Amino acid sequence: MEPDPPPPPPETLIDRYQYLLLMLGCLVFTLPLELVIGARVWRRPGRLAAAVLPVTAAFVVWDLVAIDRGHWQFAERYTTGWLLPGGLPVEELAFFVTIPICGLLTYEAVGILWPSRRRRTEGARSA
């Protein structure tokens, strides 16, 4: 007979905000790509919205369907409990917006720092 697993550590106040703090950390960590390197992602809000909103909408619908079917759930310990319509945690929406923004910032910064790489890959795509 196997021994019982140890009990989980006690919940702390920061646990409830861990997911949101991680998303904030991602934005703070990539902000220098905009301010120092000049990625120009935040400075072009129309292009940013065109890139992020369709993906966000698709994944929100996907999550809502999965939540409704009982296929998807979120740990109450690591979320605030603030739910959007359909039971979607606000942290999940933050994830769907934050991660693409960080990806765009990284992509644009790499193109600025190593422009020869971007030209080479863009040329290969058009051939």
Outline of the structure:
The protein is mostly helical and 127 residues long.
Please characterize this protein's 3D structure.
The chain has a domain at 36-118. The chain has 4 helices and 2 strands. The chain has helices at residues 18-35, 45-69, 90-113, 115-126; strands spanning 83-84, 88-89. Strands 1-2 form a two-stranded antiparallel sheet. Helix 1 (18-35) runs parallel beside helix 3 (90-113), helix 2 packs antiparallel against helix 3 (90-113) and helix 3 crosses helix 4. The longest helix has 25 residues, at 45-69. The mean pLDDT is 91.
Key structural traits:
127 residues; mainly alpha; two-stranded antiparallel sheet; 4 helices
Topology:
Elements: H1 18-35, H2 45-69, E1 83-84, E2 88-89, H3 90-113, H4 115-126
Helix pairs in contact: 1-3, 2-3, 3-4
Helix content: 55-70%
Mean pLDDT: 91
> So how many helices?
4
**Oligomeric assembly:** single chain
The main sheet orders its strands as 1-2
Q: Specify the structural class.
A: mainly alpha
Number-wise, the strands total 2
Largest sheet: 2 strands, antiparallel
Order of helices and strands: HHEEHH
Low-pLDDT runs of 5+ residues are none
As a percent range, the share of strand residues is under 5%
Distance between the termini: 64 Å
Rounded Rg: 19 Å
Shape: elongated
